[in-house]
Amino acid sequence: MADVVSHTLSKDERLSSRKALEELFGGGHQSVSAFPIRAVFMPNGLGMVRVMVSVSKRYFKRAVKRNLIKRQLREAYRLQKELLEPVESGLDIAFLWTSDELLPTEKVFQKMQNILLRIHESIAPNT
Question: Rounded to two decimals, what is the model's pTM?
């Protein structure tokens, strides 16, 4: 029987600890960008990929729009996370929205796929 890909985003896959975030944004990280999404990432040595999503209040004052974009980003990652599956050492990734415009979900999916492929290419020699 074929392997079934799990399209979930469990609590273990979410990056939330203050220490991990300080390490990620403190230095030693890499970043890739596919406007309007920027991804900051670094190896974590845990053997799993952990992600966080952030949309600045600077671009969207209303929480409804910020939450919409965060939902789009999480869904795009959740459905395409198998692009990062071969990562053995583990990664911490922060997805940051860098525009003041809303995009259709299809465009967000395309941008997320572009970013995930570029992350995989940049870490492939290291794995």
Answer: 0.90
Q: Domain coordinates of the chain in residue numbers?
A: 12-126
Query: Average per-residue pLDDT in the chain?
Result: 90
Place of tokens 């969207």: 60
Q: Are 83 and 105 in contact (CB under 8 A)?
A: no
* CATH class of the region 12-126: alpha beta
Q: What letters, b where the CB count within 10 A reaches 16 and e where it falls short, cover 16-37?
A: eeeebeeebeeeebeebebebb
The sign one gets for the Cα dihedral 126, 82, 44, 20 is positive
- What backbone torsions phi and psi does residue 24 show, to the nearest 5 degrees? -65, -45
pLDDT tens readout for residues 2-51: 455 678 888 989 999 999 999 999 988 899 999 999 999 999 888 889 99
